[in-house]
Amino acid sequence: MNADLSRRHPAGREENSLPLPFAERELPAGRHQFHKERLMAQIHEDLRAADATASPVRGTRRKPFLNRAFLVPAAAFALAGALAAGFLTYVDRGAADGNGSTIATGPAMTTSIGAADDGRGTPQILDRISLAAASVGGGAKVRADQFIYIGSRTANTYVKSSGNKNTLVSEELHLRHQWNSPDGLDGWLIEPGRTGPKGITLARKNEKGETPTPYLNAPSYNYLAGLPTDPDVLLKKIYEETRGMGHGPDQEAFTTIGDLLRSSYPPAELTVALYKAAAKIPGVVVVDDAVDAAGRHGLAVARLDEQSGQREEWIFDRQTLTYLGERTVQVRGEAGEGGLIKPGTVVFTTAVMTRTVVDRMKEIPASVG
Length: 369
What we know:
alpha+beta; 12-stranded antiparallel beta sheet
C-alpha cells in the first residue's frame, strides 16, 4: 500500500492542514512526523491546495487518505454494484463539489470514555484475537494485475478557523475508497473533502520519475509478504525502523502496528505476528467498550499517549474478535489550540467496511456500505 493518508491530524492548529500520508501523519496519538516521502509529499501539497481553509487537530497520529461529491447513499452503491455483476466502477456523478471543496462539518464528536484494565489480561486477549485471525485465513491471493481495495467509513476532528475565532469541529462520517497494486506502484484514492470527486492517483513516482522503495510506514502488499512473522523479530524491526519518531518508542510501535492493521492487507501469518508483537509492547491495555465509525460496539486494545493524553483504540467484535476499526479519544487533560480538545473528544475514527481484492482500479465491491 502507499503511505496512509487516512489518519488523523495532530491536535492543535495547523495552517492549510490535511491528512498526511501513512508515513508522514502526526495525529492524535503523537503520530508520524516521518519521512517526507517524495510521492506523498506531492500528494500532500495537492491536498493542501484543496482545503486551505480548514485547520486539522494537531497532536495525534497519522492517518490515511479522502472528497465530497463522490459520497452518495450506500444503498445506491450496493444496488448499482449488484446490477454490475457484483462491482461498479466509480464515475463522476456530477456533484457540485470539486477540487477545493470541503466536507460538511458539525460539532466535535464525543464519546463516553471506556474503562481500561491494568494490562495484565492484554496478552491473553491478543492471543485470542490472533487465533481468530489465523482461523479466518489471509483472504484471496493477489495477482500482479489486481488491486487491493479498502473501503472505510471515517471522520477527523480539527480546529476550524474563521477570522480570529477557532472552533473545534468534526467532519461528517464519510466513505473513503482506496486502491493499491500489490507492488505499491499504482493506486487511487477517492475521499470526500480531500481529493475531488474523481480522486487522485497514488502512483509511486517522484518528480524525477524514480520509484521509492516500500518500507514499514509506506508498505506495499509485496513488501508486507516479505516481513518476518516471528513476533520478536518483527517487533525488533518495528522499534528499529521507527526509532526517534512519534511520542516515544512504545507509542510509535503501537501506532505503526495499528496503521498496518487498519490500512493495509497483510497476509494471515503477518496479521497473527502483528497481534502477538503488540502484546509485548509495554502499556497496552484492554478497554471494555468502544464504538467504531459505523456505530459498532466492541472491546478495544489500546494504548495511552502520555504526552498528548489521547488513547489509540483498536476495536474488535466482542464475539468473533474480528477487527472492526480504530479511533483516537482524548482521555486525559486538554489538547489542541486553546485546549479545545477536552476529555471525551473523538479525534479520529474509522471503520473498515470492506477489504478485498478487485480486478480493476476504481472498482467498488457491492458489499461496501
